[in-house]
Design a protein that fits this description.
The protein is mostly helical and 99 residues long. It has 4 helices and no strands. The longest helix is centred in the middle third of the chain and has 31 residues, at 34-64.
Amino acid sequence: MPSFAPRNEPRKKKEELELKKLILKNAILNGLTLEIISKKAEIYKTAIVSYNKAILHVIKDYEWKNKTHSFNKEKATREIEIWQNKKVETIITEIKNQL
């Protein structure tokens, strides 16, 4: 018997995503160099893609078990496509606008 219950949602990936976003915001607020901010933005971009891939994995698992779920497969796929093609400069600008 496993010591942990199977995951029903990508909770850990969501927490990682929120942490990476906070790190990027702090890098911008602290006025770090553009090179460092760009690296943080790239890490944030990777975290978003990973989170959406985790959602797709959960969806696939639910569909395999013939269970209902509240996740949107098309939205997750679209987000992956959008974020993989998004430039780092655009990400930095979007985060600056949120501050």
